[in-house]
């Protein structure tokens, strides 16, 4: 089995610099054998890749790509405090928030953007528990925010 860093390279993904917090919190923190990330936004190269509400202003495919970018950013945040991406030995939990138009019920399909990337990077160790929740609005008007819990090796 390839390491997470090898998988990222195969996918052509370079982990970005960790985005500086917008308020009084840290992007990720270690507690025992776990790394908890703060909610990650779909930022790429310093810009949000989309803004708006899913179901009216943002289509589900774009929101899926946002969730994927959130996962990349969460991996970067976790790796920054764990000693690198290869120190992350598994994904425990994913929580995805989707800014949703009333009546939009496709949150699970949107958050699959994050879940499927985790499986590509971590293989079976990327299987996780998950929640996908519709909300009225998210910071900076983004359509998706994702937080994660990773396990780290001994």
**Number of helical stretches of at least 4 residues:** 3
**At CATH's second level, what is the architecture?**
2-Layer Sandwich
Strand order of the largest sheet: 1-2-7-5-6
Q: Identify the quaternary structure here.
A: single chain
Count of structural domains? 1
CATH class: Alpha Beta
Largest sheet: 5 strands, mixed
The CATH topology label is 60s Ribosomal Protein L30, Chain: A
Note the beta-strand portion. 25-35%
SSE series: HEEEEHEHEE
The gist of it:
It contains three helices and seven strands. It is an alpha+beta fold and 154 residues long.
Defining key terms:
five-stranded mixed sheet; single chain; two-stranded antiparallel sheet; 7 strands; alpha+beta; 3 helices; 154 residues; 60s Ribosomal Protein L30, Chain: A
Describe the structure.
The chain has 154 residues and is α+β, with helices and mostly antiparallel strands. The protein has one domain: 60s Ribosomal Protein L30, Chain: A, CATH 3.30.1330.40. The protein contains 3 helices and 7 strands; from the N terminus they run αββββαβαββ. Strand 1 and strand 2 form a beta hairpin.
Q: What is the secondary structure topology, with strand pairs?
A:
Layout lengths: L3 H8 L16 E4 L2 E4 L5 E2 L2 E2 L11 H23 L5 E12 L7 H16 L6 E7 L8 E9 L2
Parallel strand pairs: 5-6
Antiparallel strand pairs: 1-2, 2-7, 3-4, 5-7
Helix pairs in contact: 2-3
